[in-house]
Design a protein that fits this description.
356 residues; six-stranded mixed β-sheet; Rossmann fold; five-stranded antiparallel β-sheet; alpha+beta; 2 domains; OB fold (Dihydrolipoamide Acetyltransferase, E2P)
Length: 356
C-alpha cells in the first residue's frame, strides 16, 4: 500500500483568463494533517473544493487511494467536507444530523443511530443526540459537523475554515481538539485557513498558497524558521527583511552589503546580485556579538515597547543614521524603555537568504 493517499498532478483551474490554481503538484500522506494556508483569493479553497469534487479542474488529475477521481462526483468520492457554516439542518436533532450521511448510504436506522452516538462520543458530545441545533453553542455545532463527517468514515476529511466563525478562546480549544481527533482516528485531514498561528498549531505540513501556486511546503517549524521565498517570510508572522548586494560568495559562505552593514552567513548568490535576508524578531539578541557564529548588527534606539504578555514587542531603529526599522521580541523580564540604546546581534545560522 502506497504511503500517498491524495495526489494532485498538474492541477489547474481557470475562470476565463484568471488562473485560480496554476499547475499544482502535491501529495498528501495517509494519516497526515495538511493545512492549506494563504491569503484570501490565493486559491487554497479552490484546491480543497477540487479535492472534494465540488469544482472540476480545467486540467490535471486528482488521485485518491490510487483511483483517478478527477471526474467523480462528490457523493461517490471517499471524502467528506466540513464547511465554515457547518451546513447543519435546523429542523433535525443532533442525532439525525450526525446520521444524515449514513442515511444517504442506505444504512439501517438502528445501525446509523448507533454509529452516530459513537461519533458524538468521539467529539465529546455524549448525551446530546436529542437536542436541537438551536440549543448548541458555536463550538458544539462545530463538533456536530465533525461527528457527521467522521460517522461515514471517509478516507479524507476536508475542512474549509471550520473554525473561522468561533471566538478566539473557543477557536484555540477546537484547534487542540481537532489535532487530538485526527491523531486518535489515524485519519487524513486537509484543512484550509488564512490564520498563520492556527496553521502552525495543528499542521503536520503546511502548503503555503500564493496566486494559485505552492509558494512553500513543509513542516511548520521549517516553513517559519527557514522560509523558502520572500513571500513566505513576510506571510508567516513578523520578519525583519534586509535588502542587500552580494559582494562575495565562496564555499557556501556569502557576504552581503546592507543598510545594517556587511553581513556574513551561509548561502549562495552571484556576486553583485540583489538579495534579501530574513531574521525573525525573536532571533535578534541584545548585547555585543561574541563567537564565530554571531553577526554584529550594530547599535539600536528603542522607539516603542509593547507588553504582550508572553514577551515585549519592541520597535527600534538601527543602521547608519538609524534609518532602518526593526522589530525585536524580548522576554518579559527584560526592562526596556523608549529611548534606550544598546547593541544587537544574531546567530549566522538564523539568517535566511531568500529568493523572490
Amino acid at each position: 500500500m502506497s504511503d500517498s493517499l491524495v495526489e494532485l498532478k498538474g492541477v489547474t483551474k481557470e475562470y476565463g483568463a484568471i488562473k485560480a490554481v496554476d499547475n499544482v503538484n502535491m501529495n498528501v500522506s495517509r494519516g497526515e494533517f495538511l493545512v492549506l494556508l494563504g491569503p484570501s483569493g490565493s486559491g487554497k479553497t479552490t484546491i480543497l473544493s477540487m479535492m472534494g469534487g465540488f469544482t472540476a479542474p480545467t486540467s490535471g488529475q486528482l488521485i485518491i487511494d490510487g483511483e483517478d477521481v478527477t471526474e467523480v462526483p462528490p457523493a461517490s468520492r471517499p471524502t467528506v467536507t466540513v464547511f465554515q457554516d457547518y451546513a447543519l439542518f435546523p429542523h433535525m436533532t443532533v442525532r439525525e444530523n450526525v446520521s444524515f450521511g449514513l442515511a444517504m448510504r442506505k444504512v439501517s436506522k438502528s445501525v446509523r443511530y448507533k454509529l452516530a452516538e459513537e461519533s458524538l462520543e468521539t467529539v465529546g458530545l455524549t448525551g446530546f443526540g436529542d437536542r436541537g441545533i438551536h440549543q448548541l453553542s458555536g463550538g458544539q455545532r462545530q463538533r456536530v459537523a465533525l461527528a457527521r463527517a467522521i460517522a461515514v468514515e471517509p478516507s479524507v476529511l476536508l475542512l474549509d475554515e471550520p473554525l473561522g466563525a468561533l471566538d478566539l478562546k473557543i477557536r484555540r480549544q477546537m484547534q487542540e481538539e481537532l489535532v487530538h481527533l485526527q491523531k486518535s482516528l489515524g485519519a487524513t485531514f486537509v484543512h484550509v485557513t488564512h490564520d498563520q498561528e492556527e496553521a502552525m498549531s495543528i499542521a503536520d505540513n503546511i502548503a503555503l498558497i500564493n496566486q494559485g501556486r505552492i509558494e512553500d511546503y513543509g513542516p511548520p517549524d521549517r516553513v517559519y524558521l527557514r522560509p523558502a521565498t520572500l513571500f513566505a517570510a513576510k506571510f508567516m508572522g513578523d520578519s525583519n527583511i534586509f535588502e542587500g548586494i552580494a559582494v562575495s560568495c565562496e564555499d557556501n559562505r556569502i557576504r552581503v552589503d546592507t543598510q545594517m552593514g556587511q553581513l556574513a552567513f551561509t548561502g549562495e548568490a552571484e556576486t553583485g546580485a540583489t538579495v534579501h535576508v530574513s531574521l525573525r524578531p525573536e532571533q535578534i539578541r541584545l548585547g555585543n556579538a561574541e563567537g564565530d557564529n554571531m553577526i554584529p548588527l550594530g547599535e539600536i534606539k528603542v522607539s516603542e515597547v509593547i507588553f504582550q504578555g508572553t514577551h515585549r514587542l519592541c520597535h527600534v531603529r538601527a543602521g547608519k543614521g538609524l534609518e532602518v526599522e526593526l522589530l525585536l521580541r524580548l522576554p518579559q523580564d527584560h526592562a526596556v524603555s523608549k529611548g534606550d540604546t544598546m547593541n544587537i546581534h544574531a546567530r549566522q545560522s538564523d539568517a535566511v537568504l531568500l529568493r523572490d
